[in-house]
Amino acid sequence: MTKVQSKKIDPITVQVVLGALENVAVEMGHKLARMAYSSIIRESEDFGCALVDVRGQQLCESSHSTPLQSGPIPGYIKGIRQIMEERNDTFYPGDVIMHNSPYHGASHGPDVGFCIPVFYQDELIGFSFTAAHHLDIGASTPGSCGIVDAVDAYAEGLQFKAIKVYEKGVKNRYVWDMLSDNIRAPKMVVGDMEAQIAAAKIGAQRYLEIIEKFGLDTVEAASEELMNYSEKMMRDAIKKLPDGEYTAEGFLDGYLDSSDPAKKDLRIKVTVKVHGSEMTVDLTGTSPQVTDRPVNMPLMGTVDIAIYLTLRSILLDSTIYGSFPQNSGLIRPIHIVAPKGTLCNPIFPAPTIARFNSGNMVADTLMKALAQVVPHQVSAGVGNLQVVAFSGEKDENYWVYMDIMEGSYGGRYGKDGMDAVDTLYANTRNNPIEDIESHYPLRVNRYELKDNECAPGKWRGGIGSIREISFLADGSFSVEADGHKFAPWGFDGGKAGSVGSLSIREKESDEPFKLPSKLPNRIAKAGSNIELAGPGGGGYGNPFERDPEKVVSDFLDGFILKEKAFEDYGVVITGSGEVDYQKTNEIRNRQR
Amino acid sequence: MKLFGVDVGGTFTDVIFSDTDNRLTAIHKVPTTLDDPSTGVIQGILELCEGKNIDKAQIDHVFHGTTIATNAILEYDGAKTGMLTTKGYRDIIHIGRHQRPQNHSIMQDIPWQDRPLVQRRHRLSVTERMGPLKDQVIMPLEESEVRGAVATLKKQGVESIIVNFLFSYINPAHEQRVKEIIEEEYPEAFITISSDVSPQFREFERFTTASINGFVGPKVKNYIQNLEQRLKDSGIAAELHIMSSNGGVATPKTVSEKPVNTLLSGPAAGILGGAWAGELTNREKLITFDIGGTSADIGIITGSGYSESSARDTWIAGYPVMVPMIDIHTIGAGGGSIAHIDEGGAFKVGPKSAGSRPGPACYGHGGSKPTVSDANVVLGRIDEYNFLGGEMQIYSNAAYKVIDELAGELDLSRERTAEGILQIMNNNMANAIRERTVQKGEDPREFSLVAFGGAGPLHAVEVAKILNIPEIIIPLYPGINSATGLLTTDLKYDVIKTEFMLSTNMDFSGLNADFKGLESQLVNQLKEDGITENDIQVARSADCRYAGQGYELRIDLSGDVLDEVTIIEAFTNFHESHKAEYGHHFMESAIEIVNIRVTGMGVMPKIEKQKIHHDHQLEDALLKTGETTFNINGNLEKVETKFYQREKIPAGAEFQGPCIVLQKDTTTVIPPDCTASIEEYGNMIIKVGV
Fold first, then answer.
1. What is this structure's pTM?
2. Does A415 lie in the same domain as A482?
């Protein structure tokens, strides 16, 4: 056991201060979720809150939020400071700064951050920050996802680069007016933004209370301890891995209906280089950026978060390690190499708004690379998400609703894959059917697991779901998805998973018409029915080694057919739904 | 009236008797009989009757707190269940809200997938579909399919059937019809319909709540039937009432139908016990603080009573539960919490606990890890010879050994390490209280902390100091507080209806009619339970939010019939409580009435205030003087400390810290800068910084 306490501060005070800081982030998140108007924040929990010290180090983050929002916060602040420096601007007490520039730390345009500088005795000591996904940000078509045909950063909607919406406590009315005039569903969006500001204000106030109680020196020393702590956790985890290089590739659909080969079958290449307690994640070999389509990923805010989150979930899995603070110390031993001009480090003004699936593919491919080193800590291939923006007009106003369709996980060592869940760097919640139908002219006609489809393995892949939604009034929709062409990978003898799909039936009598995974805004008449099928995760291990009782259980639950139990698993099921062990053993022995 | 309260805990079954006519109270404890807790219940009552010469035939009421439902769900040991659900939505309880419980874990389990309340093979779907509008039947119920499905479930051998249809909270007709059909086709089955258990929107949460009801149902029903029978057989003619999570009691019949309402039976009674202690000292604003071996329960009581948890915040064993419950905040911190240095080198306390076996090292059962109790021993706060009234041996040397090992790793002194463990633990608990007070606009300085449970009084004063709470109340019987709480309850039922009505488009006659309908439903129920009209009270409230939000706040609507005038006051209250709760309000925004609620209470006989009287002087209570370590302005100091025996301290006595007050079921620590006194009704009051 190493000696842990710093010279400046004892280990007891460290815990007391950290507990107080974490408590603040929890409060911020709790209040933001409860005050927010749009389902993307309050139900999907697509938001993040954090306190950051004056050096830009994150001190705490709200645990009940999506990692893709909290993670980038230090990057937002870095971007804001960079822009303010370029503009010769300064922070004042009472400022509230709005920021969403993906080339300056923001995750992508719709994720708008609000930053409140915190002053103690006239000195800037840190920041209270909230980030959240907004329904609409004034892009070319309604909604803030499925803007898959934006040709550059300007087509993605309003760009806020460190804009003071309050200065010295005074509201900049004209900024708000301009904002409201240029976005759809402004009441909801502005309500959400006010909720964000209110939550950030609470954070700032509590931050000060903590400083006043413990003293700035103590809080700074405690936060340094915190960084060192997380850094040590990560270094120790990396140290356990054998030095070497581990490479994997994954592919994105891109634009399946495009005639341009540069827009399809996009490669993500990850090489993990382990050296002692340091790790480099090298993305060299990843496809060039798509200059006029928004599937490119901001390096800071998307790529880095996908990498940190995946490493943490595998190497410091909270089921095994318990929860511990996410902060800037955690990433000190990790280096990222991302060649400029590629999908993972695009050049301005290349569009990035629809970068979600690309980032999740980075996460999945990184896991595939790590599977070679820590096979007991990964899952087989993970299915990507599909996001649909529904919209329509009512009383000269827009309604906009975003629906996130889940993926599923691959099998794991000792466990089947997780069925029908949000995956990897996203962890949002679906919206209750009873809420959707009560508030929008939509009907969810079906929502259940796929019958008889899951990837065989000693531990089978997670099962995808089916979701059908129809329009009760004329409207339109757009889709941002992936994984329609490349199925999640099987591992160690497990079979590959299944692809997702999207189709539409415009009249009940019609046959379903297949649509590509990237669908720009499309008009839909009342009665049109959209069918989404979620992907199934990959299988893990040789299916002939699966416990026959589990195979029968899957058969009884309607997850596999009897014939498949025989073909894929070598398990013979009797007429009464039990394992025929004699025949099963015969077949399985023959296979060996 | 002769009343019995019996609370079954994990280790002990606590019994309290109160005779309201001659103001007599007596308590007793027997070991919990885990196989069939009713054995311990009967034994506890009979032993107390014998010891105190109580005629068992004369007992009027037995109030009972039970953990049958809680344990069934925690241990995933319930009925073989089946489900009938709307065609197209077979897997709502499996997919859930498609969110993983943990952000950073590949190897995590998902409770509703890994421990399904109804296996998919027993989830059958039938043609029917209600819509979001009143009377909107999108697809009529196909009764022949229902009969076929029930036959299948019967053949599969399920003993409990849950009916979960979409939008049944708006129109329960299909669910109700299916219930009739099941009663015809399979009358032996335990039947639950979601619109009965929790008629509110959010299908995953409602279906899961109904499924929990079906899962624990047969067990609870059998237990209660059995208990009633055994009471009768033992010659106890009393009426039996069961504690519900909502802070009231219910009849055996209603509990047998909706056992999901008893998931927090014991902890709810604990909060009531805390409220009773507050009443004895004339305090309305209370924080109740119950620490046991592995966890701490925190409850908040304000002028308007205890707070109820919002529908979206209640989880049991990882499953969401949407029924009215007292807001009880449980954290994994107790006397058995283990102090350790984690992989990253941080000094942590809990959430892992040594439990009761092996328990803390100082118990001498082979515990080898330093716990909170061991730290209390090292600091001299738990007395080697007087723990649990001297009934339990404490091994101080074992505590020194484990704390010394940790101290070596931390490079701190033995005392500093022990005191550090308490500081970390106390701050964790203070943070949990802060979440429920400061963060909701309540100022802890206006509250009294009521501490009970085996370890609550050991930590209460230090926790109060962190939060600037000026006063701590230690009840007379801190170890059987839940049993005491059982004797302060009323019969209480809640009904709820989802409205989705906007402030810009109010339908007052519809709303008033709905309230009236709910009210008469409740009044009938209470009358059926034998309550006379005069003893019935009803209260109206509504769950409101700004149109578009996803979380509701409850607004009191008792009083006049609703109209354009009275509603303004109600909405003003909503704006204000939104501001208090979240620090912000949206005055321009439309308000949506999501649910209306009516709570009905039938007044029950209760325990009466009773003065303590004995002839002792304070000096008689002094057991010894010893050295105890306290943190005084950041320095650890060993100070001469008096050890008193609580049972012998007379009413009216006042004494200064530092001192330790020992009693049979707990130990109270009073630091140097505090004053304590014993009140006429038995509470011990500790004032901080006096």
1. 0.93
2. yes
